[in-house]
Amino acid sequence: MVFAVTPLYALPLALIFLVLWFRVSSVRSATGISFGDGGNQQLLQRVRQHGNFVEWTCFVLILMILAEGMRAPAIYLHISGGLLLLGRIAHPFGLKPNNAAHPLRYLGNGTNILATLNVMVCLGANLASA
Predict the structure, then answer these.
(1) Rounded to 5 degrees, what are φ and ψ at 99?
(2) What is the pLDDT of residues 13-42, one digit of tens each?
(3) How far apart are CA 81 and CA 71, in angstroms?
(4) Which of 77, 122, 125, 126 is the 20 to 30 Å CA partner of 22?
(5) Where do runs of H (alpha helix) occur along the chain?
(6) What does the angle CA 78 – CA 79 – CA 82 come to, to the nearest 5 degrees?
């Protein structure tokens, strides 16, 4: 089986992953902190931006590839992929230590939840019809 939809989203998400990783590494290099955050607020923020990205992205991409493998309609995969990509672009800018209610944080979390629920429905529908 050739997967045509999920890779369209996995590639730009991998690029974002690398950008977020580089941002963590640059602070680690500048501060000499090799493990943890050493009490450095900027490093903590960047570690959480990267960590949150990994937590959501891997999970949703796995669900998407499973749904695509079960021949879920491409439109639903595009909806989940688009929502995930939008959320993963927005969320790091909204993850601020002094503002838990930043609108981009809500946008990032909200789109990720919608992407997850959408692909879960695809999986459930395909399992029910199998």
Answers:
(1) -150, 85
(2) 999 999 999 999 999 999 999 999 999 999
(3) 15
(4) 77
(5) 6-31, 41-69, 74-94, 103-129
(6) 80
